[in-house]
Amino acid sequence: MSIPAITTQQPQCLPWFIYIIETRHGELYTGITTDVNRRMAQHRGERKGGAKYLRNKGPFTTRQLWQTVNRSSATQAELWIKSQSKKNKLALLDEPASMPFEDVFVCERLSDSVLLRE
């Protein structure tokens, strides 16, 4: 009987991002993705798959990004944000670290790359 090999290598996991974008009319839209650049290109109409809600509402401004490790956490954070009033969303944008989830971290969007704040 052979003993299975034990590995300490962690499986590769894609990070999940929660984002808030603002339309040209000041409306706030919240979503989640594993690829921020792809998703923004979809919303801008450069690729298939953008949200119907955002059609003809561009240009968009990415207001905030948060990162987490799995879809479940991203979905919980997205639903929480969507349940907030616009006033509370704007307050969250002023203090992005006030997100009430321990496994959601503030990110910055610098040009076309997404960097986790340390």
UniProtKB/TrEMBL annotation:
CDD domains referenced in this protein's UniProt entry, alphabetically: GIY-YIG_UPF0213 (cd10456)
SUPFAM superfamilies in the cross-refs: GIY-YIG endonuclease (SSF82771)
Stretches assigned to the GIY-YIG domain: 14-91
Top-level taxon in the UniProt lineage: Bacteria
Matches recorded under Pfam families: GIY-YIG
Family designation: Belongs to the UPF0213 family.
Protein name: GIY-YIG nuclease family protein
Species assigned in the record: Alteromonas sediminis
